Amino acid sequence: MIWTAMAMMLATTGLSDGIFPIPADGKKHKVTYNDETFKIRITGNKISILHIPTLMGRKRGPLIRDWNRAVARAATGCELQDEYVDPASLALDAILICPEGRAQ
Fold first, then answer.
1. What is the C-alpha to C-alpha distance for residues 66 and 34, in angstroms, rounded to an integer?
2. Which domain holds residue 84?
3. Handedness of CA 33, 50, 82, 75 (dihedral sign)
4. Is 2's pLDDT higher than 80?
């Protein structure tokens, strides 16, 4: 169990440095942002982000939604449109609006 946790920590991508491009390959990518873990999936111009709860329990409400938005902007450099937040999991689904010259 400890080895699995250590391997997962080493396999995560840190986003605290600003924009860190996530490929638009339709696969889930695990990233860390401000010591929180998220799973991101980008397919074309659509993004899906899920916050992974910590051992102490899931934080709820607007905090998770704000984190999901911040992670989407940091991972893509794009703005979000037509956001949908699942009420049960607080997963964020949105359409990416990228500036000219930045393709997803």
1. 12
2. 2-97
3. positive
4. no
Question: CA torsion 17→59→88→21, rounded to 10°?
Answer: 0
- State the Cα–Cα distance between residues 74 and 20, nearest whole angstrom: 7
Residues 6+ away with beta carbon under 8 Å from 89: 50
The structure tokens 């699995």 sit at 4
Establish if 104 belongs to a structural domain: no
Q: What is the pLDDT of residue 101?
A: 59
pLDDT tens readout for residues 12-53: 444 444 556 788 888 999 998 888 889 999 998 999 999 988
Residue 54 CA to residue 51 CA, distance in Å, equals: 9
